[in-house]
TrEMBL record:
<comment type="similarity">
    <text>Belongs to the G-protein coupled receptor 1 family.</text>
</comment>
<dbReference type="Pfam" id="PF13853">
    <property type="entry name" value="7tm_4"/>
</dbReference>
<dbReference type="InterPro" id="IPR017452">
    <property type="entry name" value="GPCR_Rhodpsn_7TM"/>
</dbReference>
<dbReference type="InterPro" id="IPR000276">
    <property type="entry name" value="GPCR_Rhodpsn"/>
</dbReference>
<comment type="function">
    <text>Putative odorant or sperm cell receptor.</text>
</comment>
<dbReference type="GO" id="GO:0004930">
    <property type="term" value="F:G protein-coupled receptor activity"/>
</dbReference>
<keyword id="KW-0716">Sensory transduction</keyword>
<keyword id="KW-0807">Transducer</keyword>
<dbReference type="GO" id="GO:0004984">
    <property type="term" value="F:olfactory receptor activity"/>
</dbReference>
<keyword id="KW-1003">Cell membrane</keyword>
<keyword id="KW-1133">Transmembrane helix</keyword>
<keyword id="KW-0812">Transmembrane</keyword>
<keyword id="KW-0675">Receptor</keyword>
<feature type="transmembrane region" description="Helical">
    <location>
        <begin position="140"/>
        <end position="162"/>
    </location>
</feature>
<dbReference type="InterPro" id="IPR000725">
    <property type="entry name" value="Olfact_rcpt"/>
</dbReference>
<dbReference type="GO" id="GO:0005886">
    <property type="term" value="C:plasma membrane"/>
</dbReference>
<protein>
    <recommendedName>
        <fullName>Olfactory receptor</fullName>
    </recommendedName>
</protein>
Length: 309
């Protein structure tokens, strides 16, 4: 389209999850409860790990960072979605849209690297337990954490810079409940082919790289476990890795559908359901998965409650 004679748009309207008025209040209540539980669970877990010195080990530092990132993802998307249930004008400016996508992309990319770092930590703990303390030091843990956040920051900034080359004049309606990158491509009056290619390459590379680390780590863990004759040792190893494996499976499934599958530039209802699961449900489940299966976390929580109550 010739953008010289077109009116360039700087404000958009998010369609949200539903147009049916009778569903507005029930959905608002459901997502409000989910959001409150998510924030309390994730930030509570982060605070617990920060305040308990005996939890200042690599495994729990990774877990606390993961919980903080989950709270960030949910806070990037859910508050705006909750407000839009009750206002007719669901407008969002271009700058707000860019900031929301940047925040979402940053936290999502960071979580990919954190999950890979956690898999490496479990590999060292199970396959080389005698040298675990010397290998996985707190210094190395901090370096991995900082690297995860820096890589997430670079990745999100890269996509936002490429978004700045686009102009919007085809439509002001974004068929989504938050500003995701694919719906923005759809309403761009600038050819987004380069951006689509960059998303496919960069997001695909990050996912392939981090998934390979997880697969290699747990393949080596599996071989180590099978060599052991102790049933108790096998149970302990599976208990240690089970929560992380479940979290990885839940996380990467919808992410692959959203950004790597062919034809993902169309923001249809299936895309929104994938996004909803990824941005709202998974941050709710992660603290439950890790906390309920971790006796040390439960014991620390009980002790903290006894001290304060």
């Amino acid at each position: 389209m010739d953008t010289k004679n077109a009116t360039l748009l700087t404000k958009f309207v998010l369609t949200g999850l539903t147009h049916q008025q009778e569903w507005q209040i029930p959905l608002f209540m459901v997502f409000l409860v989910i959001y409150l539980i998510t924030i309390v669970g994730n930030l509570g877990l982060t605070a617990l790990i920060c305040n308990e010195p005996h939890l200042h080990t690599p495994m729990y530092l990774f877990l606390g960072s993961l919980a903080f990132t989950d709270a960030w993802i949910s806070s990037t998307v859910t508050p705006k979605m909750l407000v839009n249930f009750f206002i007719k004008s669901k407008r969002i400016s271009l700058s707000e849209c860019m900031m929301q996508f940047f925040s979402f992309s940053f936290s999502a990319s960071t979580e990919c690297f954190l999950l890979a770092a956690m898999a490496y930590d479990r590999y060292v703990a199970i396959c080389n337990p005698l040298i675990y303390q010397m290998t996985m030091t707190n210094r190395l843990c901090i370096q991995l954490l900082v690297s995860s956040f820096v890589c997430g920051l670079i990745h999100s900034a890269f996509h936002v810079l490429f978004l700045l080359r686009l102009t919007f004049c085809n439509s002001y309606i974004i068929h989504h409940f938050y500003c995701d990158i694919m719906p923005l491509f759809k309403i761009s009056c600038t050819d987004p082919s380069v951006n689509v290619l960059m998303v496919f390459i960069s997001s695909g590379s990050i996912q392939v790289f981090t998934i390979l680390i997880v697969l290699v780590s747990y393949t080596l863990v599996l071989f180590t476990i099978l060599k052991r004759k102790s049933v108790q040792g096998i149970r302990k190893a599976f208990s240690t890795c089970g929560a992380h494996l479940l979290s990885v499976s839940l996380y990467y499934g919808p992410l692959l559908f959203m950004y790597v599958r062919p034809g993902s530039t169309q923001a249809d209802d299936q895309d929104m359901m994938d996004s909803l699961f990824y941005t709202v449900i998974i941050p709710l489940l992660n603290p439950i998965i890790y906390s309920l299966r971790n006796k040390k976390v439960i014991d620390s929580l009980v002790k903290m409650l006894k001290r304060n109550v």
